Amino acid sequence: MTANQEPSEWMALGISLTLTATEDGGRHKALGVDGEPYKPYGYRPNWGLPGMTGTDQTGAMVLRLGHVPFAPGETDRAVIVPFAPASVSLWQKVRPGDHLRAFEGARIVGTATVEWVAPRNQRLTEEQEDRFTAWATGREGPP
């Protein structure tokens, strides 16, 4: 570990995210604006992790969506990053193949399958952001 690295208790997760269709109770608007790049951390849903029931949830920001606009009913890649120290131990139990529920308040607005989990610094480095973004946008394989 170099002087600039922190212990790898923090992680980023690559997911295949499906937004629930509007007619099935999902969002009414797409995420992002057509023609404009996605603003990192611009979408901040909460997540129901494996073993959580009902509306139990914890936070993780969306670093990157695969494309924008990302409309209800669509599926694409995304990279999420848990940010609260109190929830890191919950996220450390998540593995590839696990299923997550995306929440906005108490409403489920999407489902996701975890594709990969990668260690990261608590504060992402530019290199980490570039690698994770490359995966989300389909330019590279998993980090």
Termini separation comes to: 18 Å
Shape: globular
Major sheet characteristics: 7 strands, antiparallel
Query: Major sheet: order of its strands?
Result: 3-2-6-7-1-5-4
DSSP strand tally: 7
The topology string of helices and strands comes to EEEEEHEEH
Taken as a percent bin, the fraction of beta residues is: 25-35%
Total of helices: 2
Give the helix/strand class.
Answer: mainly beta
**Fraction of residues in helices?**
10-25%
What does this structure look like?
There is one protein chain. This protein has 143 residues and is mainly beta. The protein has 2 helices and 7 strands, in the order βββββαββα. It has helices at 88-91, 126-136, and strands at residues 10-19, 46-48, 58-59, 61-65, 75-81, 99-104, 107-120. A 7-stranded antiparallel sheet has the order 3-2-6-7-1-5-4, with helices on one face. The longest helix has 11 residues, at 126-136. It is globular and about 40 Å long. The two termini are 18 Å apart. Residues 1-7 have low confidence and may be disordered.
